[in-house]
Amino acid sequence: MEGDIFSGIGNGTPVDAKTLQMFQKSFLQVQGILDQNRLLINEINLNHESKIPDNLSRNVGLIRELNNNIRRVVDLYADLSSSFTRSVEASSEGESRSDGKSIQKRIRSG
Fold first, then answer.
1. What pLDDT, on the 0 to 100 scale, is given for residue 2?
2. pTM for the full model?
3. β-bridge pairing 15-16 and 5-6
4. Which pLDDT does position 86 carry in this prediction?
5. Phi then psi dihedrals of residue 73, to 5 deg
6. Residue 87 CA: distances (Å) to CA of 18, 73, 93
7. 3-state class of 74 per DSSP?
8. Which residues pair with residue 15 across a beta bridge?
């Protein structure tokens, strides 16, 4: 199955199975972190509403964990964006123009 081509992108650009698998893995990671964040937020809210000093102190660590999770999600989305761009650029390299000449694409570093 590896190397199979799918036309899964909205504009019909082919995507190979390996790339699709990488996207799926990243999205599952993001979803897991977001699910964990939902639980953290619920616990933070309960602690805040209780106004118990120990619970309020515990919120400091929970909020730090939440912030770290948000950073991880941002990093994962940045990696996904870069991977998606590279995938689209790679799949569109070698396309032919209507006059039969190959289109040369410049890949930006960044």
1. 45
2. 0.69
3. antiparallel
4. 85
5. -65, -45
6. 10, 21, 10
7. helix
8. 6
Is the pLDDT at 14 greater than 80, yes or no? no
Kindly write down the DSSP assignment for every residue of 4-71, as one continuous string: -EE--STT---EEHHHHHHHHHHHHHHHHHHHHHHHHHHHHHHHHHH--HHHHHHHHHHHHHHHHHHH
Q: Could you tell me if 103 and 91 are in contact, meaning their C-beta atoms sit under 8 angstroms apart?
A: no
CB atoms within 10 A of CB 87: 20
Tokens of 4: 């199979």
- Say which residues have a Cβ less than 8 Å from residue 8's Cβ, sequence separation at least 6: 15, 20
Angle value at C-alpha 10, between 4 and 15, nearest 5 degrees: 20
